[in-house]
Structure formats: structure tokens, C-alpha cells
């Protein structure tokens, strides 16, 4: 159902969960479709060496029918595609796209008024523009998005972001971490407890300490997100308007990609 006039590198592809650990958690049954969709809401993306490939972090909430919540934290990054079959498939998609585009946009040969010369025709120039952002298997390196995700019972955003960033750094660093990667994952899942209400907890990550803070029952609920980002995304005027609407008890709808 996607717009196939988009070049193959601008399309998105269906993602799936490659692995999860542990296999089963009694209090938190794993919903593969929901987690996959929330980790990669736009699906798999492909890029080449010419595109920006900085890791991106986002969070999400899974709310069940009984009203219980679990919190997800996702770090999406790009890995080089090593499969020759996938690279060949991307090349084939581009051949098909360019052929279809030429058929749809090439003007009639007897329409002399539409082009003053071979290079001046609008259809040809657009077609060249489409081909400029293309993929050549002999020249380009293909990358595909991949995601690591941590699902938790509470919204420890800063701590989870650090955990994921340090795990990703350990995978991509030329020097291996002091201990096997599995030992850090096991430590986070089984040995680091939830901090007691009103207390902080400090534990060791792959490359440095990580701190969790949990408010007491007499304090406001945990909001572990930087307010600075709200102002960066919405601007001062919009934040003031939102705050005014909240004080006046208006209904507020935020729409975003």
C-alpha cells in the first residue's frame, strides 16, 4: 500500500523480532507484533554511505486491557548489509523503478514542442534526479536499520537510554568490553533490583555507572524526560499555549509523525 513512485531507498519494509531474552516473563507476556511495531513504527529502512546514520532513541508504552502498563525504550541504528542476495534485490528494485519511471514520464516522441533538446526535456531531467539518489551495487555500501529494546515495569528513561547506548557502543567498538556482553545483559535483567520508593540506585553499565531514581509515594509520579526537549520540539509559544490550555482544562490533541 505504499507509494511506489518513491525510490526503493525511500520506501520502508516489514520488520520482525530477531531475538528476545528471556523467552518468557510471567508478569509480562511478550507481544511480538506490538513490540515490533512500536520499536520500528515506520518499518525497516535502508540507507547508503551517503546518508546520515546516527543512532536514534525513542520510548513507548504498552497498555494492556486491564490498564497495566509496561515501558519500552528503543535504540535504532544502522548495520552494513552483508547478504549479497539483499544487495542484489535492492539493485533489481532500482532497475524496475527506473524502467517504470521512464515509461510513465517520457513524453511522446512526436511532441517536438515539449523539448527543445535532448537534455532540456523536463521528463528527462526529473528522471535523472530520481536516478541521482539511487543504489549501485558496485559502488555503494548498503545499510539496514536494526533496533535493540529494553522493556521495563517503570519509566526509567535516562537509565535505559544509557544502558542501550553502552550496549551499542560495546558492539561497534573495535575494543571488546571488559566482560562478555551477555554478562551485562544478565546483570541488568536478574541482578539489578528496582530502587525502593524515594531512593536512588546506582549500578555498573558496560562503560560506566548508571543511576535510577524513584520518587516516594508522597511525591509526584516519575517523569524522567528532559523538559528541554519539549521546548526544542514545540517552541516556547506552543509550550505556553499548551500550559494555558491545561490550566483551563481544555482538551489537548498532539499530532505527530
From TrEMBL:
The keyword Transferase does not apply. One of its GO terms (cellular component) is trans-Golgi network. GO terms for biological process: retrograde transport, endosome to Golgi. Residues 1-257 form the UDENN domain. Keywords: Guanine-nucleotide releasing factor. The lineage of its organism: Eukaryota, Metazoa, Chordata, Craniata, Vertebrata. PROSITE patterns: DENN. The keyword Protein transport does not apply. Pfam families: DENN (PF02141), uDENN (PF03456). This is DENN domain-containing protein 5A. One of its GO terms (molecular function) is guanyl-nucleotide exchange factor activity. InterPro entries: cDENN_dom, DEN5A/B, DENN_C, Tripartite_DENN, uDENN_dom. SMART domains: DENN, uDENN.
